[in-house]
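> run fold ABC transport system permease protein
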Amino acid sequence: MYAKLAWRNLRRSLADYGIYFMTLVFAVAIFYVFNSVSDQPAFLSLAESQRRMARGAVETMEWLTTIMTGVVAWLVFYANRVIVRKRSRELGTYMLLGMEQGRLALLLLAEVAAIGAVALGVGLALGVALSQVFGLLVEQVFRAPVDQRSFVYSARAAGWTLILYGAMFLALALWQAAAVYRQRLIELIHGARKNEEIPLRSRALALAAGLLAAGTLGTAYWLADRVSRTTGLDPTDPRVSLGFLLGVAGTYLLFASLAGLLTGIRRRTGGWLARGLNLFLYRQVTSKINTHAVMLATVALMLTFTICAMSTGLGLGAAIRGGLESDMPFSYMASSSDPDQDYSGLRALLAQHGVADAQVVEFVAGYTGLEGADLMLPDDAGRFLSDEEGGYTVYVPVRAMPYSAYGRLRALKGYRDVPATPDGYLLHAADRGHEAAARTHAAWERFVAAGSAVEVVGVALRPAAAEVFSEPLGYQLGGISPVLVVPDPVMAALAPDEERSFSRYLVAELPGQDPPGLAEAASAWALEQSQGQVWVHVSSRAEALGSVYMIEGILVFLSFYAGIMFILISATLLALHQVTDALEHQQRFAVLQKLGVDDAMLNGVIARQVGLYFLTPVLVAFVHSGAALVALNRALTREAGYETVGQAALTTLAIFAAIYGAYYLLSVQSCRSLFRPGRAG
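> ok
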């Protein structure tokens, strides 16, 4: 009999709380999918050096998924408590009919454990299916295409999922059964009537709390703006932690104050509320917001974290990749602190791997003794000297390189030809970077546009072109410091001294993909050449981009996992409260039906009620995340030229809308099914 009763209750629970069950399934599936990365063919096809870095990313993600399992455990704990509280009258009725309390606890244990076991099995099956598609994303992120694809099953990820989630479901089932065992009959009978206390019943206190919340949140936004306008990104800045704490406190104060404020608003909007079922709708929504204030504030903070984490993770990864592609335009760049460095060994290696001599440029570049201010008009130099953020640009050293090498470098990349005169110079400076660098670039443009002369080793040179060239030449040449392109005889007259150091460079541009083994051989050659005070470094664009793809993969996977899980948790909490509260309010909707409200009006009220409840924390999260993303984007753009918002934010909002919208529609459908004739009353 007890087994039959447990099975009947289990089927009814799945029907009434399908959203909760669906979330458990998705949580298990996503956990398996993200922990199966190391067994994906794209991961196994990586080079050994890339795989070591990717292994670190996978280990980090495994730690995050384990931590997130604790968050999911809190969700399951909270959801189970809500469900049991709503079923407390039913459980109390079993005891009134003679069921022993111990058997009641075992009955509930069997139900909760069965739901967890079914969710675990279905979730694992779904995870295995989704991991086949997830492999395509791994290929794109790690830039490791696979020629032949096969069915992927990760025994390690499956075992880890079974251990963590199985233990979690069992522990929560035991805890829930023990909690019911300790409850008295009177507590079970009246448990469904318990609700969260309204935080502030006094309207005066609510108004004071609302004003305090506005001041607290305003201060948090102001601190974020101030930090974003300060030179240098310092996460340990006390204003960061203070702003975070004020934001959290202000959010809880805001939702706590709604308990009294909404009552006052209702008394001043009689005309609108008198139309149709607006008054009923208003009382329903405000009642839910008042009694679930703490939960709604928590959801708003989780959604804020989700939007910020996903937007920043996706945008920053793409920005770093784009920046490196600009910083390393050539396939290989070697540099040596010895201006007489012999590159014959490296040239031989390149030749062995099919790199023609025409694809290689070798030259010497060095510092001229000039500074950034020497390439500015007097008025511009004076303004920068008094600029707290951009003042350093007047002191950056100016390097020089010969016309012949500069022309060949541009030819390798297919850049347009530039003029060359025996008594002229060209100015090259990267235009990507923070705000101060952009203003400095504009000042240098005004300098050359005015035809200003520059003296190098006693030779007066005038601009051969009235513009500053900024095509990517690599961070070693075209970084913060400007490059003065001078005639070859002038460059030959420059000599190293205590103030002017010179380096010898070798640049190679390959027409196709990087030959296997060339990067490792070039690095080994550079290591052999580095002796004593002489250092030699060889950078490979393919290897550097491979490292960046790993970093981008870490950011994408971690932000995706954390973001999707937080959206699932937030939407589940909101949906679960809607469905469980709907059970309590069935009688109210039954009265509306008896008063003549047709199905169309009733369905409209339910849709608007659920929509307003879902939108309340979302609106707060949008305001919070908007302020945070604007500040973060300003700071990163100024400091590193990384644009983090935009495309990434749109992608985040699309994912957010898809998941959140699906839960909203499911909640509406579940609530409508509870109020159909035959279930109400």
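The longest strand covers residues 360-371.
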